[in-house]
Amino acid sequence: MKKRILASLLALCMFIAAAPFSALAADAVTTGEALLAAVENGGEVTLGGDLAQSIVIPAGKTVTLNLNGFTLTNSGSTDTITVLQGASLTVTGSGTVKNTVDGRGVVYNNGTAVLNGGRYERTGEWYVLLNHGSMTIGDGAEVVSGSTFSSMIENGYQNYGSGSERTGYVAGTNAPNPSLTILGGSFSGGLNTVKNDDGGTLAIHGGTFSNTTQAAILNWNTAAITGGEFEVSTDFAVILNGKDESNTSGDEVLNKGDLTIEGGVFSTTGATAVGTMNGTSGNIGSVKISGGTFEVAEGSDSIISAHGDGAAVTVSGGQFSESVPQDYLAPGVEQDENGEIAKPQGTMQWDADQTGGTAPVISGSTALFDGKIGWYDTLTDAQGNVILKAGNRIGVQINAPAGFDTSNSVVYIDGVEVPWDEIRDGDNYFVLYTLVDSAGSFSFEVAWSEDNVQTFTVEIGENATFAAKPADPVKPPVEEPPVEEEGPVNPPTGDLPAAALFALLALALACTGFVLVSKKAKAR
Length: 524
Fold this sequence. Notes:
By secondary structure, the protein is mainly beta. The protein has five helices and 50 strands. It has a 23-stranded mixed β-sheet that branches. A ten-stranded parallel β-sheet has the order 4-7-10-12-14-17-20-23-28-31. A hairpin with a 5-residue loop joins strand 41 and strand 42 (about 385-390). The longest helix is centred in the first third of the chain and has 17 residues, at about 1-20. The radius of gyration is 34 Å and the shape is elongated. The N and C termini lie far apart (about 115 Å). Residues about 1-25, about 485-505 and about 520-524 have low confidence and may be disordered.
């Protein structure tokens, strides 16, 4: 008897060890009836096997559905998952949710849906995901469609005023302004991969999007993209944008055509990265691009293609593989030889007298002095006024962007504001000296324009050494002012205002340990 009991226990242990862990979940559902009952009750629901059962999340219920590695398929001619207004659904785990009939979706959401896991696919013709509520898609989700009959994901309404809840807004059934937020995930297929339609708001912060038929993103209303990878291999643009002011609900325009792009990678084998829906007969609306990388076919002259009365395209940042039309560039920005759109920036270099003694390491707008820093005698102006006391001193030169109009540029140092053109040299630079006695750093700003402020930083490294004061320092000779003679007085030269300003700046900055020097003033 003991041997039989032992053998039975061993057999049971072997069965448990061999069985998939997912099948042993205590609350796993393995039949359609059990799934319907679990959803009706709300809470956490875990699949325990592949099921062909459509479900509806009731209003007032919150359900977390763990796919648990299994597949959920529609039953009959229905959407696989329907979320009613006032209901909430979160999908987690690996597994698949699919639909096999035309005209019905994998997820039809009128409430709140969060897709953090799972693969969503269809074999028929229609949307994979239809959002008429609030939907968020996370990193763990994958959405695919082999059909090009319609867009793969629809956010908003195909026809806002249709009166049908499946295509239009119906008060009490769905949301007046559906919102879709994509944080990550993988999206492939459809006529357009993601379509933001009547009244919809779309925000994309990550994910990978691909399309071989039309666009990766089609926006009709309000969309903002801060990240993600978007790729198409078609003659259409990666992003299509459209505006239709005639499509309204009351005072609200439902197709505003407002698109902002702050980041992301947009690539195509075609000619256009961002284009107008319906081409020359359409209206691109308002497009603002401040970041991102845009790659199109080599030689393209339409990397951005805008049409329509009142079309407004503004590019203030980003990197483009081909030239951006000058009309689209924001004021004060330019496209460099690498295709980058940026506000013009100044440069920093060691001053011409190589003050400090050991060359600094300059990287961008930062200069690091990490060697021996010499001792310098008192710095005076032409009239013998003390500009900077004796001590260990370093000097840097700040250059304005080539060809830049600095008439409105301002320098800010330790709370002191100085107009650039009052201190600049004829070559459009100025020199900054400062006393130093220990490791540390300080920064100052140059506002080339109101919305283009550049910060420069000088660092004194931990390895810096400071030369001692010489036993008998020799002061540089001070040029005596010429003795006035009787006769006509010559008009002041261009040097005099600079010299006078030099003394004023010294007074203004005396408490800071900084001094600004123009070449003209320093030479006197």
